[in-house]
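Hey,
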Amino acid sequence: MASVGVIGSGTWGTGLAVLLQSKGHQVTIWSAIESEVEDLSKKRLHPNLPGISISEEIQITGDLGEAMEEKAILVMSVPSVFVRATAAKMKTWCKRGQIIVNVAKGIEEHTLMTLSQIIEEELPEADVAVLSGPSHAEEVSRGLPTTCVAAARSRKTAEFIQDIFMNEVFRVYTSPDILGVELGGSLKNVIALAAGIADGLGYGDNTKAALITRGIAEIARLGTAMGGEFQTFCGLTGIGDLIVTCASMHSRNRRAGILIGQGKSMEEAMEEVHMVVEGVHSAKAALALARNYGQSMPIVEQVNQVLFEQKSPREAVNDLMLRDKRTEGSELLWEQYEKRNMENK
């Protein structure tokens, strides 16, 4: 069994801590908030994971060194906007070759860096990997069957992470495509905001299906242009994560989108959700990346206009529907199909 430090005491960090402890690992959760450390230590309950008991064997601390020292793996589970600052604080205790598994999702707005890139910049001595996929903390902590992907720079590290996390209800695949895995996990939050907005407007399943399928097309276009693998966007951390985030009420991005579609402002929606809405923080970065790489992302563009330019959600949907006519797949050439049809007559 391994000793694991979970850096961050949000729902996902806590949910993974519960999972890891159930496998017999020695787990320590770190929080930067003193009152949260006291509350979790005393009550052994997380306010956003109702009915889930945090074992007395899980140590909860506000001492970052205590959470990091002598740990086989560190699980980085802080909101994307705090990843850089937290990684900088970790430098004092980060040993060479320390495996850090980032489980947060997002893109830094001013640098356009993924979270693993930020951690590597702040902690160059670390072995940084990613764990991602369709995995709501509310379900993982209850032991409901879930699948994720561990992406790392070496097969050895990916398989070590796979062994640490995997059990009969949490299946882990491995991948060398860290960039593709992170982009899928980050960009899907922006599409989920759009799906929530459509729900808030009262639109139906047809609209949701259109947003999911055209959304993954946008994600894959940008992701492959940046160097990610197309296969990644067809898998768990691409279409899989997008489906669950667009469809589930566990999704804070979808819930925020619903509120916006119902007429609330971005700020009002984020306040009501009471948790970090990563899609809001990633939306501007996604649009900037699309422009940098010359990729069309009309859904992302309309989400940005609704969030930051006070555009009416209904008008944004209308503009998406009334875009110029085009074929669905740019790789499908009419000439080839017409020739084939003539030959088959």
